[in-house]
Amino acid sequence: MTQPKSVLVTGASRGIGAAIARSLAREGWFVFAAARSKSECDVLAREIAATGGRAEGLELDVGDVSSITHAIDRMKDRDLTLDGLVNNAGIAISAPLVHVGEDLVEKHLRVNFHGPRRLIEAFLPEMRRQKFGRIVNVASSAGLRGYKYVSAYCASKHALVGYSRAAADELAGSGVSIACVCPHYVDSPMTAASVQRIVEKTGRSVDEARAVLAEQNPGGKLVTVEEVAATVVDLMGDGRNGWLVELDGATSRVLERR
């Protein structure tokens, strides 16, 4: 029996990450579903197993170097070579520009940029040795443009996109690919938190607040987690190195390809 390819999906306890984990499992990948809440990842792993897939929950805080080291050690205990990495975990905290502060900027960079970077640098040597690897970074439209009140978030996602572009050039022809998905507002728990903040600050209803965010997407509607997951699966499937894909709520646009 051929051993399935294994993939680490961060931020997999819910929303986009959970959808990606389910989709990759359906494609035959062994999924390490990782997040700060291992219990939620264990529930997802059992759900995947019940539908014929293979998965394992893993505790991982991408903003904590010691947590990354521990998670890598746990994966090595499974004696599986990591063939794929989906960096999905992230945070988004809003604040007016002059009140952002160093702590908030540093927190966004630690989770949204340095976490993915550290994981890539941990697994890349083995991927290069085996001449096979698939890396997809779930960035954001905030890695392509700016938004009011989330300058720290935008800076961290711009950093992730820039790093991915440079890495793709270095990895060309190596058998290892790296790509970015940049969705606009997604119908996810992170957006639900934004909706709640709008409700609290403006008195709008939940539906009205959701409509405000949907209208900011060029496509006029929220991106679904399934759309993001399908794009990740496509990029993982044939190793589209250097691809930068924007999801705007109506269309999927390839902005760059190497």
What does this protein look like?
The structure is a single chain. With 258 residues, this protein is of the alpha/beta class. It has a domain at 6-181: NAD(P)-binding Rossmann-like Domain (Rossmann fold, 3-Layer(aba) Sandwich), CATH 3.40.50. It is built from 8 helices and 8 strands. It has an 8-stranded mixed β-sheet, with helices on both faces. Helix 2 (38-50) links the parallel strand 2 (30-35) and strand 3. Helix 4 (101-130) packs parallel to helix 5. The longest helix is centred in the middle third of the chain and has 30 residues, at 101-130. The radius of gyration is 18 Å and the shape is globular. The two termini are 35 Å apart.
What does the secondary structure layout of this molecule look like, with pairings?
Layout: E1 6-10, H1 15-26, E2 30-35, H2 38-50, E3 54-59, H3 65-77, E4 82-87, H4 101-130, E5 133-138, H5 151-171, E6 176-183, H6 189-202, H7 206-216, H8 225-238, E7 244-247, E8 252-256
Parallel strand pairs: 1-2, 1-4, 2-3, 4-5, 5-6, 6-7
Antiparallel strand pairs: 7-8
Summarize this structure as a short list of keywords or feature phrases.
8 helices, Rossmann fold, 258 residues, 8-stranded mixed sheet, alpha/beta
What is the compact description of this entry?
With 258 residues, this protein is α/β, with parallel strands linked by helices.
